[in-house]
Amino acid sequence: MSTHDENAPRAKFAAMEEGTAEDWGVIASQFGPFAKKLPERVLDHLRLLDGDFGGFPIDRLQHSLQTATRAHRDGRDEEYVVMALLHDIGDTLGSYNHPDIAAAILKPFISEENHWIVANHGIFQGYYFFHHIGADRDMREQFRDHPYFGACEEFCAKYDQAAFSADYESEPLSFFEPMVRRVLSAPRRSVYADADRAAEQA
User: Are 109 and 183 in contact (CB under 8 A)?
Assistant: First the structure.
């Protein structure tokens, strides 16, 4: 069931080139409330991983929780922990490029380094299994000279590849929900957020 208000004001243009400041004022007035609900939409999508094993020892949600829990218990900051929690959220829609999905969702909210980690973790994670499926486990070596190589290598070694234990007691999703809401409510890199802030200050 849709939660959108079909009776809310709408712009009147049929093509963007016809749009007026009044039209874009209508759109901007509805962008803010919609954007504020992003954390809830992301959490709802993360829950789709529940019960999805894909042949792994634990389901994809438990893997995500375990990765985040390991990072949290290792003293990582909140942004890093949220990145760890959401690193595989793209599994449902990006079967062939899941890191790209997570990276796109997180990009406005996290540092350049953390974004690079989540965007490239698929290749770095391949070190642990690519040789078993006929691929090159050293594919990550193409990035050896990149300044974030070590950080991505560490993420996979300490948190991602190690997070498939059926005996590990992870924190529940509810433990991480406030972190997700805080991190995904403070965009730092977005042309839309910049425009929204400018409109508020005008």
Answer: yes
- The model carries a pTM of 0.91
Neighbours of 8 (CB within 10 A): 10
Indicate if the alpha-carbon torsion angle 93, 96, 99, 101 is positive or negative. negative
Three-class secondary structure assignment of 115-139: HHHHHHHHHHHHHHCHHHCCCCHHH
Residues 11-31: pLDDT tens digits? 999 999 999 999 999 999 999
Contact 176, 68 (CB under 8 A): yes
Task: Using DSSP, state whether 157 is helix, strand or coil.
Answer: helix
* 127-159 residue pLDDT tens: 999 999 999 999 999 999 999 999 999 999 999
Amino acid at 177: E
Looking at residue 196, what is its pLDDT?
60
Q: Regarding the domain delimited by 40-183, which CATH topology (the fold level of the hierarchy) does it fall under?
A: Hypothetical protein af1432 (1.10.3210)
Asked if 88 contacts 98 with a C-beta cutoff of 8 angstroms, the reply is: yes
> What are the structural domain ranges in the chain?
40-183
Give how far Cα 183 sits from Cα of 77, 79, 94, 108, 145, Å. 11, 6, 23, 10, 30
Kindly give the parts of the chain with pLDDT less than 70.
1-4, 194-202
